[in-house]
Specification:
Blueprint: E1 9-14, E2 19-24, H1 26-47, E3 54-57, H2 58-61, E4 67-70, H3 74-88, H4 103-123, H5 126-129, H6 132-173, H7 182-186, H8 192-218
Antiparallel strand pairs: 1-2, 3-4
């Protein structure tokens, strides 16, 4: 007598009902449940219940005094990654050296970053912003713009650009003289040392902000 193995999966045609019937083995059902449970576990581990705590201390960056502790999800990492890319591909997130860097070019980079970050924040959906973790990233980014960039740009940018444009024109109109390098011209700004100190302070905050976004992207 031959024992016929029980099929794991089979179809049967019900002639009376004119329909197919699907029969699934108990082993297949158990396996499907196990796979589903594993996928749920991985999902939670990546960005939910089992995600590692991440802390943002605004005092470390220099743009406030609040601390945030949260469990980042994939949306938070995507936002942080977009900001990190902007900071890493512009002069804004790198150390400034005014012996070689041109101030007006730095201001252009800062202004563009201000616009890009503002648009990025606006693009986050309302449902995502409801999460406390996403709110923390948005709050930090807004503080970096309003407490980091805006005060310096408001105080210095127009004053320096007006002076610098006038100096460039004055040197260009001279005859028989070589035009000075922009770095040498900008060093003649009457409040150059004060501007440089304030710019370095903002730059330091932006570098720390960039490092924090990178850390958040890599958080498991």
């Amino acid at each position: 007598m031959t024992n016929n193995p029980i099929p794991l999966l089979s179809f049967a045609w019900d002639q009376q009902a004119l329909s197919f019937n699907l029969y699934v083995s108990l082993w297949i059902a158990v396996l499907a449940i196990a796979v589903a449970a594993l996928l749920i576990f991985v999902r939670l581990h990546k960005g939910g219940l089992f995600a590692r705590d991440f802390e943002i201390d605004q005092a470390e960056i220099g743009v406030g005094s609040s601390k945030f502790r949260f469990k980042p999800n994939i949306t938070d990492r995507q936002v942080a990654y977009a900001i990190w890319v902007e900071l890493s591909t512009r002069k804004i997130g790198l150390p400034i050296d005014l012996q070689h860097d041109v101030i007006v070019e730095i201001y252009d980079s800062w202004y563009n970053f201000f616009s890009v970050t503002r648009e990025l924040i606006k693009s986050i959906s309302v449902t995502q912003v409801k999460r406390s973790s996403t709110q923390a990233i948005v709050k930090l980014s807004v503080e970096v713009l309003n407490e980091g960039l805006r005060p310096h740009l408001t105080h210095w940018q127009a004053r320096f650009r007006h002076w610098y444009d006038r100096e460039l024109k004055r040197y260009d109109e001279r005859t028989g003289h070589d035009v000075l390098d922009p770095q040498r011209i900008q060093a003649g700004f009457p409040q150059f040392e004060e501007l440089q100190t304030d710019m370095q302070k903002v730059n330091s905050a932006l570098i720390k902000y960039r490092a924090k976004m990178r850390e958040l992207v890599l958080t498991e």
